[in-house]
Amino acid sequence: MAELRNIVQGALLENEPMSKHTSYGIGGPASAFITPKDQYDLAEILKFSSQYSIKTHFIGSGSNLLVSDSGIDGIVLTPAKALTQLEFKDGLVIAESGVMLGRLVKECIKRNLTGLESLIGVPGTLGGALVMNAGAFGGEISNYLHSVDIMNKTGTIKTVTQEDIDFSYRFSSIAADEFVVLARFELQEELPEIIQAKKSKASQGRKTNQPLKFRSAGSVFKNPPKFAAGYLIDQTGLKGTKVGDAEISQHHANFFVNHGKAKSSDITALIRLARKSVFDKFGIKLELEVKTIGFNPQELDSDNAS
Ligand SMILES: Cc1cc2nc3c(=O)[nH]c(=O)nc-3n(C[C@H](O)[C@H](O)[C@H](O)COP(=O)(O)OP(=O)(O)OC[C@H]3O[C@@H](n4cnc5c(N)ncnc54)[C@H](O)[C@@H]3O)c2cc1C
Fold first, then answer.
1. What does the pLDDT read at residue 305?
2. Which residues pair with 58 in a beta bridge?
3. What's the count of helices (H) and strands (E) in the chain, helices before strands?
4. CATH architecture of the domain with residue range 86-209
5. Where do the CATH 3.90.78.10 domains begin and end in the chain?
6. Which CATH class is domain 229-304?
């Protein structure tokens, strides 16, 4: 740790509770929670963690993340609050990965640039949005992507174009050991009233459909082909089911909410229960959309439902 402290120029927090960095408000301590100062700092930290084979996780703002109460033995790296440059130059929108998606969308709307407005209200950073291929109301972040700068564990940056990455529903082929540093988008101008109409439709839909008053990580499961995961869970009668302080939302069955003191084990118990109930009733195995850190596969598997 002393050596790491000498290298890091940004912020290094030791034994930092991950509950402070996830929208669930859940998660035990990370040995080292680091916000690099800039790309050079990031490169040095990645080289160090690779040289000493230290397990390293990348996160954005933790809005699609479930972290175990036992925490993370290793380094957690985030660009949030540090890599936050955003520019509009040569017909491109150029944003560092720590830019919040909401800010990016609003700045594009201000300039009458269309493409990202359906993502209004999706929490998180640009980096997280790209890795998850975040989408809402018919639009996905990858739709207007031009290129991405990715740093690997040797601290080297490569620029890849949209076509170099496989994007599909809530999936990108960006690997777990690749850090998204920056992305460029190519957006077209549009009449402000058309952009505003799309934005309002998305905001309204979100307010109606999602339990926004409570802490959650958005959709827990991906929608399987043909059905919405929320519909399937609802059909098993699980809406409103509680384990500890966690609940399968009464409002939207694919959102599991934390009423304040939920533990990661409360959420995983609901995950197993929903998976088992949906499999028993429909023969469909639900796939997690939320990313998890620090669990055994058995903790998340419906075969172990209790
Ligand atoms: C109330 C609510 C509503 C939501 N609605 C939607 C919605 O409508 N549509 C939707 O798609 N999602 C939705 N989500 C989920 C979430 O907002 C998105 O998945 C978001 O894009 C995650 O961004 P993040 O920065 O929080 O990423 P995190 O949750 O921190 O991380 C997500 C993944 O990205 C990786 N990652 C993050 N940053 C980087 C980086 N710089 N380099 C490499 N890897 C990185 C992490 O390792 C992890 O695998 C919702 C969540 C909430 C809480």
1. 44
2. 77
3. 8, 20
4. 2-Layer Sandwich (3.30)
5. 229-304
6. alpha beta
Q: Is 51 exposed, middle or buried (0-12, 13-18, 19+ CB in 10 A)?
A: exposed
Backbone angles phi, psi at 120, to 5 degrees: -60, 130
List of long-range contacts for 202-205, beta carbons under 8 Å, 24+ apart: 202/117, 202/118, 202/119, 202/120, 202/121, 202/136, 202/137, 203/120, 203/121, 205/136, 205/137
- Taking the centre of ligand 1 as the mean of its atom positions, its distance from the CA of residue 2, in whole angstroms, is 31
Q: Which of 266, 278, 206, 211 is nearest to 241 (CA)?
A: 266
pLDDT digits (tens, 9 = 90+) for 49-75: 999 999 999 999 999 999 999 999 999
Angle at 64 between CA 59 and CA 69, to 5 degrees: 75
Which of the residues 147, 219, 249, 264 is marked catalytic? 219
Reference 123, options 219, 233, 19; nearest CA is 219
**Does the predicted model carry a pTM greater than 0.85?**
yes
- For residue 24, the model assigns a pLDDT of 98
Nearest ligand 1 atom to the CA of 97 is 41
Q: Judging by DSSP bridges, how do beta strands 65-67 and 291-293 pair with one another?
A: parallel
Please, what is the end-to-end C-alpha distance for the chain in angstroms? Answer: 40
Identify the segments of the chain with pLDDT beneath 70.
Answer: 302-306
Q: In one letter, which amino acid is 87?
A: E
Class of domain 2-77: alpha beta
Output the ligand 1 site: residues, CB below 6 A.
23, 58-65, 79, 97, 122-125, 127-129, 131-132, 134-136, 179-180, 210, 212, 216-218, 291
Q: What are the residue ranges of CATH 3.30.465.10 in the chain?
A: 86-209
Query: Which one of the listed residues 170, 184, 272, 275 is annotated catalytic?
Result: 170
